Automatic annotation (TrEMBL):
It comes from the Bacteria. CDD domains: ABC_NrtD_SsuB_transporters. Its EC number is 3.6.3.-. This is Aliphatic sulfonates import ATP-binding protein SsuB. The gene is ssuB. It comes from Meiothermus granaticius NBRC 107808. One of its GO terms (molecular function) is ATP hydrolysis activity. Residues 7-237 form the ABC transporter domain.
Length: 265
């Protein structure tokens, strides 16, 4: 997947036409191949920020670059894919043809796009269901299809808006592990919106904690634990302390990091 790719958000404000000030003075940077989560209470502007990065929403002031390009430009769009909370699959198409759709829209020939669709279905463990229709899939499987569809264009950046929000805890954890494997295999940069602090700590290298009215980045927390993350990490004291740290910032308290000797390698 290649060249370094970074997201830079400088002093961004977003006011909607009805006057709502959704974001004010937001600064953020995402390094190439980094996994960054956006967390914060409902209405703090997480989805708005993600939609701005995707070029789906204009900013009112400030500066945003995605891999050096303005969001929404063909160059920026070519490098990213968006995964929503709802898998939004076309019910009349098989899994394979849903996954192949982005390549079809780019004019890639049938043989090549179906071969690539098979490949990415393998990445999400769904090769055996290529011929199934969405109605025959569980919620977790539908989300895997949605992720495969996002991966088929080999995006350098994956923007994910609460992708596992509608799933049960176990499926959520499994998909989280799969997502980290995919991220490691593809070198993709991931920006991930979640309400779940445990999920944010488990998956991320850094967490941007946002606060509302207007939406701001209150704190940037490092998760100083190397990949691969393991079930032991979930059971560790470090994990609990990091989650507590995020919650503390959300409640307006200090971001007291765990002491270095408490952090696992
Ligand atoms: N199209 C819109 N027009 C006006 N206001 C909007 C629009 N979209 C979002 N907002 C407002 O902007 C603020 C941020 O919304 P946003 O959806 O980004 O928050 P969020 O942190 O993603 O919330 P949630 O966790 O509930 O999804 C909220 O006050 C919301 O009501």
């Amino acid at each position: 997947m290649g060249s370094p790719f970074t997201i830079a958000v400088k002093d961004v404000c977003k006011r909607f036409p009805d006057g709502t000030l959704a974001l004010e003075g937001v600064n953020a940077e995402v390094r190439a191949a980094e996994f960054v989560s956006l967390v914060g209470p409902s209405g703090c502007g997480k989805s708005t920020l993600l939609r701005i990065l995707a070029g789906l929403e204009p900013i009112s002031s400030g500066q945003v670059t995605v891999g050096g390009f303005a969001p929404g430009t063909p160059q920026a769009r070519a490098e990213m894919a968006f995964v929503f909370q709802e898998p939004t699959l076309l019910p009349w198409r098989t899994v394979l043809h849903n996954v192949a759709l982005p390549l079809e829209l780019r004019g890639v020939g049938s043989q090549e796009r179906l071969a690539r669709a098979q490949e990415v279905l393998g990445l999400v463990g769904l090769s055996a269901r290529a011929g199934a229709f969405p109605r025959a899939l569980s919620g977790g499987m539908k989300m895997r299809v949605s992720i495969a569809r996002a991966l088929i264009t080999q995006p350098k950046i994956l923007l994910m808006d609460e992708p596992f929000g509608a799933l049960d805890e176990l499926t959520r954890q499994r998909l989280g592990d799969e997502l980290l494997s995919i991220k490691q295999a593809t070198g993709a940069t991931v920006v991930f919106v979640t309400h779940n602090m445990f999920e944010a700590v488990y998956l991320s290298q850094r967490i941007l904690v946002m606060t509302p009215h207007p939406g701001r980045v209150a704190e940037v927390l490092e998760v100083p634990v190397a990949y691969p993350r393991t079930p032991e990490f979930r059971a560790s004291e470090t994990y609990g302390k990091l989650v507590y740290q995020v919650l503390s910032v959300l409640e307006g308290g200090p971001a007291v990091p765990p002491k270095p000797d408490e952090v696992q390698a």
